[in-house]
Amino acid sequence: MIHLYVEHLINIRTLSLQASLPTFSGKDTEATLSADGSLLSLTHEGETASIRLPINFSPNQQSTAIFTIPAVPSKELSFRIQLEAKKDQPNGNGILHGGQINDDNIIPWTADALTAETEIRCKACDTSLVRGSQIRAWKDLPSEGWAEMMEFWHCHKPDEPHDHDNSNLTSKGYSAGSQLALKRGVAMVDPLDFLLMPEDCANIEARPSIIDSNDQESPLQCTECHYTLGHMEATTGGFRLRKLNLSVSPNNSGGFSSYDKQKWLACLLLCAMDTRGVRKFSVRHQDMAFKLWLFTPDLTVSSSASKSPEPMRATKVLWQDIDASDDTGPELLTAASLTEDELRLTKDEAQILRRLLEDSAGMLPPGARTFQDKWNVGLLERFTANDMDVP
């Protein structure tokens, strides 16, 4: 069977094509473009496979795009085509045909998208967790480490003498030891979670936590179906509900929506990359540990092995299993620790993430499934404008 795979490397406007053949290429092996420049077909020994390209070739590009089959027979073929710099309009997937894309990390259900009529339900059984009109205000949570950064800025103002007296920082509310204060009727929102007062929620109960290095706080579950929803936060006493476990209706005019966990996990990785300034992370639990490397945060791919013929916006992630018993953590100040951070996931989320990465290798040709003989290569689908109902 012929396996075709295409990557649109957005930042460098390049199309990378790879083909895996069951036998060695020969004179009858040929790659062609469709008349409208949207499909690539490869014929080999009477078999033809086609794939929809992440972009449509313009007439000029069609005339210059050359898919030359190497003279030396091979089972693995690759082509690279430089694309024209061209602005265009997005298609239904939020992917631009002209070779550009909105490179923002799209995040559903931010505070400014929610209203006093917003209702939250359990994703598994549709039980109401936060009823409409219960929350009068939705506010964005500050990013990770905001208190530490504010304390650093206050102590190291360039135009003021250095002062180690932190007593006035606490009164200002941004010392490193400051705690967030929750209010009834006000919900806090970050990219992956809602943080609410328990009194604003219904049909949620805490269950005993299974002892695990990354599960220090009481898990929360739906009282009807016992589906895991999030955890009770020890510092604030609030309910932190994970968005990937919920369905939400932002207002009365729309229905409820929920999203694939794969997209939420990709969103989590991209947010961690942006806020922490690193691309490598480790995930650790008692019987499982692996490292992640966000190798290409934003690209568009097409694969003949994909369940959908449409191109997919994705993040390319390199990953490798590591020894779970090795407790060497990022607290040791080494050169490696400065470019790597710990990623906190529940055990269920870690298992789902690892399985998704492992399964996604099937979209890649065999020769593209490893990197430097030690990293596995995986793909995670990203949110697009289409997920947000943006035309």
UniProtKB/TrEMBL annotation:
One of its GO terms (molecular function) is ubiquitin conjugating enzyme binding. One of its GO terms (cellular component) is nucleus. InterPro entries: UBQ-conj_enz_E2-bd_prot. GO terms for biological process: proteasome-mediated ubiquitin-dependent protein catabolic process; protein autoubiquitination; protein monoubiquitination; protein polyubiquitination. PANTHER family: E3 UBIQUITIN-PROTEIN LIGASE E3D, E3 UBIQUITIN-PROTEIN LIGASE E3D FAMILY MEMBER. This is Ubiquitin-conjugating enzyme E2C-binding protein. It comes from Extremus antarcticus.
